[in-house]
Design a protein that fits this description.
single chain, mainly alpha, three-stranded antiparallel beta sheet, 4 helices, 3 strands, Integral membrane protein, membrane
């Protein structure tokens, strides 16, 4: 962030694209997971693949939930949230998409989160790790089944 733009915000077009992609992905992953669970239950097969899809669904859903927080906060609401978070001494904003963050900078250089819930990034990371591990297990299970 440059000194001439202390109140920078998340890029609106990127935010909108990520939000739309997240919403579509959550719906698609939910349908995929439910049909996978039904199919696995009917066929008596492992629930590993549907569990991996559910984990991806939860991770994408959590990140999209954070994007919704940003989407519904207009300039006035952001300024108000920052003023409350840092006792009115806001000198600028520090937004990022990864991790999802809307920081409020004070005169002493301290940055405090004001818009994104504190649980969001750790939960998204944990769900993403679970999704990666489950996906790896699905791939390993598939390779083991085709080589025996």
């Amino acid at each position: 962030m440059s000194g001439d733009q202390p109140y920078a915000e998340h890029e609106g077009a990127v935010l909108l694209l990520l939000l739309l992609a997240g919403l579509v992905a959550v719906v698609w992953l939910t349908v995929r997971a439910v049909t996978g669970l039904v199919r696995a239950r009917r066929n008596g097969t492992t629930l590993l693949a549907p569990a991996a899809v559910l984990a991806w669904d939860a991770a994408v859903g959590m990140y999209t939930w954070g994007l919704l927080h940003l989407f519904f906060f207009d300039d006035h609401a952001q300024a108000e949230a920052c003023a409350k978070a840092v006792d009115g001494r806001v000198t600028g904003y520090e937004p990022t998409f990864v991790p999802l963050h809307f920081g409020c900078r004070t005169g002493d250089g301290r940055v405090t989160e004001a818009v994104i819930p504190s649980y969001l990034n750790p939960a998204t990371l944990l769900l993403g790790i679970c999704a990666l591990v489950l996906t790896w297990l699905v791939i390993a299970h598939h390779k083991k089944g085709t080589h025996t």
